[in-house]
């Protein structure tokens, strides 16, 4: 009986790595305006979107269904462009651990990639593996990349 798991996806992006990471590191409140699968987010507790003591409440769509959860930032590694989020409450309560890890990578060939990792522990074997999250993260990454590229073209 395996309750713990890890899902990983890596997606190439056209946006420079620093710009993509900056959105999550210092402009997280904007993500809801860039992704059609994120319906709403707000600060549930605390005053700052990027403080580890703050809790955000998210409403989003996975596999055609509306879901909710709370999120807090567990760790930020600016040097390696990596952020670890802890998700809990709402629909995440079927997992005792649910961590979402974002890494934005500068590739040797001058391109960039986004690596998403989900570390999870299910409360029991009847809980499904969170595979729908991979599609959600892939599509959201594409939405964000496209939006950031449009903004870059306008700035040129």
UniProtKB/TrEMBL annotation:
Protein name in the entry: Bet v I/Major latex protein domain-containing protein
InterPro entries: Bet_v_I/MLP (IPR000916), MLP-like (IPR052006), START-like_dom_sf (IPR023393)
Residue span(s) of domain Bet v I/Major latex protein: 2-151
GO biological process: defense response
Organism whose genome encodes this protein: Pisum sativum (Garden pea)
SMART domains: Bet_v_1
Family (UniProt): Belongs to the MLP family.
């Amino acid at each position: 009986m395996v309750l713990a798991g890890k899902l990983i996806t890596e997606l190439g992006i056209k946006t420079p790595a620093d710009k993509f990471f900056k959105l999550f590191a210092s402009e997280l409140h904007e993500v809801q305006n860039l992704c059609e699968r994120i319906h709403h987010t707000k600060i549930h507790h605390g005053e700052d979107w990027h403080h580890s003591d703050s809790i955000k409440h998210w409403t989003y769509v996975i596999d055609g269904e509306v879901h909710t959860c709370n999120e807090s930032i567990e760790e930020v590694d600016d040097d390696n462009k990596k952020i670890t989020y802890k998700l809990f409450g709402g629909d995440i309560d079927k997992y005792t651990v649910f961590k979402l890890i974002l890494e934005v990578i500068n590739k040797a060939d001058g391109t960039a990639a986004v690596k998403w990792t989900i570390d999870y522990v299910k409360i029991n074997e009847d809980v499904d593996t969170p595979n729908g999250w991979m599609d959600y993260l892939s599509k959201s990454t594409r939405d964000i990349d496209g939006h950031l590229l449009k903004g870059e073209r306008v700035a040129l």
